[in-house]
Every structure is written in structure tokens, then in C-alpha cells.
């Protein structure tokens, strides 16, 4: 087994808090785009998005209570991101792709920190990759379920795949003893780049195409502007 590292290192904490902030921003902005929420709802969605994946990971590896509840900084950073998004929403929405970019950044950071946390818990490289991927996609999945939207991980082909790629590079670096700041940044950059390329060029893996039901076909034939009796 490769080298073990302390999850309390400065590098790990910096990556985790950075991921918490950008995912919190993304969760808040996504929630405000989808629903008419007050500041409490926005902050709650920000915290769920920022911390959901890490909580799922910690529960699976038996690290209880989860880090989000053992270190006050995670809750403060996630909640603060929600407040920042709510107060300065007009600034964020000016950037056409700010929500997608923040989502990709959070995904990239969390797939790295999730993998290193699992590795530090004495799990193998494969298991660490799985948990790193879950850490990256978990918070956004919970957010989408709460706002009644099909989770991005199930509807966007290049979402879990970039997270798995970043987690794999991180696990290899840990296993072969060359993990450090440069390796972490490189793994996160690979994940971010693949996700943004997928968005830019609309790249997707093969998807199912469900057959239309008679009711669905009737609604489609009626058109969007026709009213019922």
C-alpha cells in the first residue's frame, strides 16, 4: 500500500475549504435559479451542496461524526458562500457560465480531497477512487433531489467521469508516493478541464431514449401554446 497522509494537513484543509466554498456558491445560485427561495432556503441549499458529498463519504468509511460537524469551519464556509451568493447574486449571474464553472471547480477539488480522505482511512486505491467520486458528485445530487430536478450526475454524461478521472490520478499519486501540491492541482485540473470541455462541446456518453407514452405524445402534438378546455 502507498503512503498515508494526514487529512489534517494544510494542503488537504485548503483544498477542502476551497471546494466547500465554490460548491456552496454553486448550490445557492442553482437553487435561486430553480426556485423562489428566501435567504434561509438559499443557505440551506448551499450547505447541502457543499457538505453533502463529504458527509456521505465519512458515513461510508465510518468516520463519525463527519468532518463537517467536527470542524466548525466547514459549516461557516458553506453557509457563508450561501449568504455571499444571495447578497451579490446580480454579480454572479452576469457571468453566463458561472454556475457551471463553480460546479466544475467544486467537483474537481472534492474528487481530490475525497480520495485522499479515503486513502488515509486505509482503503485501497480502487475504493478510494469510488469514494472520491462520490464526494465530488454527492452534494450536487442531494441538492438536485431537494429542488426536484433530475440529478446532473444522471443526466450529464461528463460529470461523474471527470470526477473519476481526477480521483484516479490522485489515488495513483498516493499509491506510488508522489502525491503533493503539484499532483493535487494536476488531478483537479484534469477533472475541471474534462468537465468544461464536455459542457463546451456538448459531449455525452450514450443515453437511453424512453418511448413516449400516448399522453406524452398527445401533449407534444398539442404544442406549448394550446390551452386545454
Strand content: under 5%
- Extract low-pLDDT stretches: 1-8, 223-229
Radius of gyration: 19 Å
Overall average pLDDT: 86
For the sheet with most strands, the description reads: none
Order of helices and strands: HHHHHHHHHHH
Distance between the termini: 69 Å
Number of strands: 0
Helical segment count = 11
> What overall form do the CA principal axes indicate?
globular
Task: Return the structural class.
Answer: mainly alpha
Number of domains as seen in the coordinates: 1
Give the % helix. Answer: over 70%
Task: Produce the secondary structure layout.
Elements: H1 10-34, H2 39-61, H3 67-70, H4 72-87, H5 89-92, H6 98-120, H7 125-146, H8 152-155, H9 160-175, H10 181-200, H11 214-222
Helix pairs in contact: 1-2, 1-4, 1-6, 2-4, 2-6, 2-7, 6-7, 6-9, 6-10, 7-9, 9-10
Account of the 3D structure:
The chain is mainly alpha-helical and about 230 residues long. It has one domain. The chain is about 70% helix and about 0% strand. It has eleven helices and no strands. The termini are far apart. About 45% of the residues are buried.
Amino acid at each position: 500500500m502507498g503512503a498515508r497522509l494526514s487529512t489534517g494537513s494544510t494542503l488537504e484543509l485548503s483544498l477542502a475549504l476551497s471546494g466547500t466554498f465554490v460548491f456552496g456558491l454553486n448550490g445557492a445560485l442553482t437553487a435561486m435559479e430553480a426556485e423562489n427561495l428566501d435567504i434561509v432556503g438559499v443557505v440551506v441549499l448551499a450547505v447541502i451542496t457543499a457538505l453533502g458529498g463529504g458527509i456521505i463519504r465519512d458515513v461510508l468509511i465510518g468516520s463519525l461524526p463527519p468532518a463537517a460537524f467536527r470542524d466548525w469551519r466547514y459549516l461557516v464556509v458553506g453557509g457563508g458562500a450561501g449568504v455571499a451568493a444571495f447578497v451579490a447574486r446580480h454579480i454572479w449571474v452576469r457571468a453566463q457560465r458561472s454556475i457551471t464553472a463553480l460546479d466544475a471547480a467544486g467537483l474537481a477539488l472534492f474528487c481530490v480531497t475525497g480520495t485522499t480522505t479515503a486513502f488515509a482511512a486505509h482503503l485501497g486505491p480502487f475504493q478510494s477512487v469510488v469514494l472520491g467520486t462520490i464526494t465530488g458528485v454527492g452534494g450536487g445530487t442531494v441538492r438536485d433531489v431537494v429542488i426536484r430536478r433530475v440529478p446532473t450526475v444522471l443526466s450529464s454524461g461528463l460529470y461523474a467521469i471527470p470526477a473519476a478521472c481526477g480521483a484516479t490520478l490522485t489515488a495513483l499519486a498516493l499509491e506510488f508516493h508522489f502525491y503533493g501540491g503539484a499532483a493535487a492541482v494536476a488531478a483537479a485540473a484534469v477533472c475541471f478541464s474534462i468537465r468544461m470541455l464536455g459542457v463546451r462541446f456538448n459531449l455525452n456518453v450514450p443515453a437511453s431514449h424512453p418511448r413516449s407514452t400516448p399522453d406524452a405524445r398527445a401533449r407534444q402534438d398539442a404544442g406549448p401554446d394550446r390551452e386545454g378546455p
